[in-house]
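Our preliminary data section would be incomplete without showing what the modeling component actually yields. Below, a chain of 714 amino acids is followed by its predicted structure, encoded as tokens that our downstream tools consume directly.
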Amino acid sequence: MLSNSENQEKKMTSSHLKKLLISVACISIFTGGIQAATTKTVGQISVIGNQLNSVPGSADLITKEQLEISQPQTINEALKQVTGISIRDEDGLGLRQNISIRGVNGDRSRKVLLLEDGVPVSLAPYGENAAYYSPEVERISEIEIRKGSGSIEYGPQTIGGLINYKTPNPPKERQLSTKLTLGSDSYKSLHYNYGNTFDNNTGAVISILHKQGEGPRSPMPFMVNDVTAKYTSQLNNQSDLTLKFHYYNEDAKVSYLGLSQAQYDRNHTINPATNDSLYVERLGLSAIHDYYTKDGASIQTVLYGHQIKRDWWRRDYTKGADNALGYDTTFLDLNGDQVFKDSNGGRNRHYKVVGVEPRLEYKDYKASIKLHYEEERNQRVNGDTATARTAKDDNGLKTDEIRSTLATGFHTQYNHKATDKLTINPGVRMELFNQKRNILKNSSTTNTSKGTGLQTELIPGVGFTYTATQKHTVYGGAHKGFAPPRFSDAIDGTGVDQKLSPERSTNFEVGLRSTLTKTIHTTATVFHYDYQNQIINASTSSGLSKANSGKSASTGLELGLNSSRKLKNKSSLNSSVSVTYTDATFKSNLTDGNNNETATDGNRIPYVSKGNLHASLGWTCPEDKLKMYVDGYYQTGMFADANNTSVSSADGRYGIVPAYTVFNLSTSLKLNNHFTTFVSVKNMLNEIYIASRSPEGIMPGNERKVYAGLTANF
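Predicted structure:
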């Protein structure tokens, strides 16, 4: 007999930067040059390598060609084609990512290690591994995904795998391109690229991107500026150097606040929190030095650092209250709607991250050591008007903290060729870290500083590949999943060390990669993740506001098929299908701050869909003159809370996130050797759906959007 949760799940599944840029762009159009291919990889860190079939564990690669033909507007859209990945859209702009891999908690992608060219990009990888910043898809050349035991080569997060966004290296010869895109919601984007290689051993590439629009909800204006510069040099026959600079800023009228159920039913495109504003600014620098010895060893030293400003001002409100205080009730209608106050709060956080990591490879051995420091300045500022961006006086600064982590990590791995067909890859990672929370001011204490003491974690893993035949390779492995406690969880607001263990899991997988014919390739993977503990609210009577508790498990199946064939008229037809089934459930009850136990054992993990399906078909005519691509994505329903509430709450935060299906169409036409025009339609059948009920209410999915533009290459 089916449980209530299973019955509900069955129902869910069945029902379903401006002038500068313009000037630079114009200059590029009148400057001659030759378009050329990319040089060999120098200082570009790959987490997969050149031979996908030899990877000991599951891995996926989204190629440059796939990104070009599908024309994704966001990273989220691009990742939906990968098995095992579940995406929860939020703002409709793709500016913040909520990525779940194989059933782990996808909130702000905290359990996934996000890298760009092998360097961490999250706010603070140890203390706040949150994706408030995400690389813009326009400047990414490839995306690598690792979900198996090989992911322990990088850290600290090893529970949900890793995603590495690769940016282009300098081309062999001068290349200039300008891409102009216009679209729905007054969308405008201008992307300028220049690259060249000088004297055959020194090259540079620069990307400048500006985009803006009114956003998918009315009103929700946004603006993004992104500048990336990369310099590569072959210093001599034995060493290379790569330097990279990145600057990003974003100003968007986005909010945590979603819609109540009544607001969604009345007009799902409104944005009631019109005074909310998020500003993100990032400056990143990295240097990669490669040294190759005469006996075949290589030493790669990675030096990285970034600082991020994340200021989010959100207007204060209450839900469903009367209007006795004369609050703004522009959007108030029914119970659950918001009543806005004439005040707001700034949740302002500034991050600094720096690290160095030498990596050694010799024959079948790999080893690395990392030294890493990160710091967060966290302030809560109360404004006395709805649009204030500073406090009126010193009393407006409610909380002020400095949170930091000093860490070192070690990794070693051996590639053991057991037989001609069997390769075994045992490895181990060790993480040592100390977290500190300096509370300068809050409601309960002042000038309190406390550290957690040194914490040590050993993270073993083993993977294998077995070449059964020339067409079939079996792979698999097991590894320990690890995630350090967040700053705010490790030490509470009164300076008490919560003595929390890191979150841990034991992860297993086995799979098969097959070449059925010259044009058809398949993958099949079975996985099981056993999650020993989660950090959740617990009793305050013990003096601890957090506790290690809550077991869960995730078991599933991933199937992928890719076909590429040449037709008689010399055109090519490419198709793909990816299917994921995930059964992610609690294996224990949860306890709240008053030690009240909630019956969650057996319930599904919130925001993990049970099934995802992506299918695509692409056609390219000879000489790439015309390209057409259509794809569809289906996601089963999800629950929004651990209680698996099936009926929508009035405020929209709880209830089912129903299943939905979205189809996209992209085309491009090469006019001549210099100009290409393109059109894409997202959600072309105009499916109206709920993307999320988090953080605070219903976040609607994007309606049909149309984009068109012109690319100039010289």
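Confidence is low (pLDDT under 50) at residues 1-6, 8-40, 536-548. The two ends are 66 Å apart (CA to CA). Preliminary results of this kind motivate Aim 1 of the renewal.
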